[in-house]
Design goal:
- The structure is a homotetramer of 195-residue chains.
- The first copy, chain A, is an all-alpha fold and 195 residues long.
- In chain A, α5 crosses α9 and α6 crosses α7.
- The radius of gyration of chain A is 20 Å and the shape is elongated.
- Chains C and D meet through α6, α7, α8 and α9 of C and α6, α7, α8 and α9 of D.
- The structure holds a DNA duplex (31 and 31 nucleotides).
Chain lengths: 195, 195, 195, 195
Amino acid sequence: MRPRDDKDPRIERSRGCVLEATGELLQELGYGPLTIEAVAARSGVAKSTIYRHWSGKAALVADAFSHLHDREAPAAPPPGPVRDRVVAVLQQLAIDMASHDRLACLIPALIDAAERSEEMAALAPQLVDERAQSLVDVLDDGVKTGDLRPDIDTRLLADALTGPLVLARLFHRPPIDPADIPAIVDQILPRTAGG
Amino acid sequence: MRPRDDKDPRIERSRGCVLEATGELLQELGYGPLTIEAVAARSGVAKSTIYRHWSGKAALVADAFSHLHDREAPAAPPPGPVRDRVVAVLQQLAIDMASHDRLACLIPALIDAAERSEEMAALAPQLVDERAQSLVDVLDDGVKTGDLRPDIDTRLLADALTGPLVLARLFHRPPIDPADIPAIVDQILPRTAGG
Amino acid sequence: MRPRDDKDPRIERSRGCVLEATGELLQELGYGPLTIEAVAARSGVAKSTIYRHWSGKAALVADAFSHLHDREAPAAPPPGPVRDRVVAVLQQLAIDMASHDRLACLIPALIDAAERSEEMAALAPQLVDERAQSLVDVLDDGVKTGDLRPDIDTRLLADALTGPLVLARLFHRPPIDPADIPAIVDQILPRTAGG
Amino acid sequence: MRPRDDKDPRIERSRGCVLEATGELLQELGYGPLTIEAVAARSGVAKSTIYRHWSGKAALVADAFSHLHDREAPAAPPPGPVRDRVVAVLQQLAIDMASHDRLACLIPALIDAAERSEEMAALAPQLVDERAQSLVDVLDDGVKTGDLRPDIDTRLLADALTGPLVLARLFHRPPIDPADIPAIVDQILPRTAGG
DNA sequence: GCTTAATCGAGACGGTACGTCGCGTCTTACG
DNA sequence: CGTAAGACGCGACGTACCGTCTCGATTAAGC
């Protein structure tokens, strides 16, 4: 349907080099000190070309994250009883949250950007909910199977479960050890066990 | 606080103006776009004077947060049964986060700042924990009175309770109506009777 | 002059604007109070662009002097007997020094600049000597024709002749009337016949 | 007659320290890089005190020169025949002109300042003429004794004689060796020998 | 294969903010 | 009082990146 998509392979090559370089620099410097000039220098792609493809640093970095994640196995949906599946999801979240080159380290910027811009305010819940949805899905499954009470608000419960992890990360409290997550789940989840 | 023999009142005056202006600008712009130049313009204090007192943006912002924090009266702990006290604390939190003149409404800026500056990363948990403590205290009381089971981690529970509120605020999901907070508490708060 | 393959015409345009503005400001302010900032404002060229082309104020001013020097047509040497030619040259000098749009009227700025910058210290004698040469040439001709004694140092004599004019101008003594120049020349210029 | 001149000895002590330090720094740095802050630091005298006594860098430096010269033997008026006395005066001038810590190195600043300020324009000839007068006096003596023709303009002649030295200095041409001065005098002076 | 138009690198441009330095003024406390 | 100490507002410094813009010099495409 789209008349001329991206026939020119140079576009894709440039994109690749830039995202590669951005990923490297993100790991080396983090988000704040990363500069478009540095990306241009490292990638050998001209600044003008970068701006031709991305609207700015935020867009570029967001894209670089996607690029990095595309190359990884998409988080496998864990099988088993609800409680174990919840634990698995949260453990994965804890790991992501601690890593330097994951979406997690963009979240602070995202939060602040959402505060100042209509666009970002609209985009933020979208991006976050996408990730959060997997947990809600697991909980919904639990409701369906009767492992969880039918009257619970699974969205709310998901936030209550992720809250401790996310808040610790955002406020730079000591990070939560994935090994402690079963205990956390057991404290919060059982309240909702089907009765 | 400290028995300084600051003879020259100009020092304290400058400090005050600058911290005031910094607080305002943090709210308007957030951490990233905040510039020392803008602080100087807004406060009427010369840039050189700002650098005379603070080593840079990070130190200034950290100080501004502390300053704002100091001037907020610690919310009086409400009386009554645990569940109602928790509800009251969370309702106050919901109100604070939506307001325009409280430290709580600077949380997005604080999160972003903590991500980019060592000083703020160290300060953030301090500021946040102090606020969070009131809820933990209420829960601890509940444990003492036997309204809550003795085996719970009150710190964790506090995060689970505030999580939904804070996350909704940060990610610009539809704001939570204070009227809904009792329902939220009832879903998450485990009471001795298990009901 | 140099066969540069400067494809981008903006470079030359910027250079021109900046040198123009620098010349103007040198005349108005002199070397000391001249500011790169002011040059940028006057020329409409960004400060960063100026620093892209020149290493600093000294280099810029040196270039501005060369630029002004290049555009001044070398005054045609007057014909006639030596004494009259000397008078003519000095009268032209007197006029130039009093004017507002000639390099000669920038001599005060040049002297000060030469005192404070290596570049200008190297350039100054170059600029000045080139102008002085025309008088030396006239005197050399006089020696050749026998109008002047062959044992004189024409360079020295040229300085002795211009000295009164230049010193009066520099030290703001009452200016010398061009009509008085013949008398001056007659006192200082040694002719073969001995006066 | 003056009611209370400077009874307070601290004033004189401060003045001394400052002038001392200024002299030292002038020799070390020259006029351009010399800073009032540096003078204050070196002398141990507060900046405010310096500004209480002098209007600025130029005035301070001028004063420092006077102070330095006051401690030296005032140039002895040379005896003997006119020609030798002229040579002696010019040789002293040549030496002064070459030294770093004499009035000579203020002259470029003086010239430029005179160009921009009424005050300085009035002051400049005064300061310079004071020094030039000794040569004019010598020449006037020569006229009186009949060694020089009575119809010469001694002021003009003095400028012609000093011109080569002064111009070489101001335009950073190679400095004139005092040993060459007799030859210079002999080329310019004889024209005016009494006939 | 031969244009021809898209895409590129290189980097100049006008800006904004940086953090520093020295200015000349002003304020306080001391002797 | 005059002073040392030093904070202050100010303005310029020279640098780093920003995001925009002109340039030829490759290409890859469709004629």
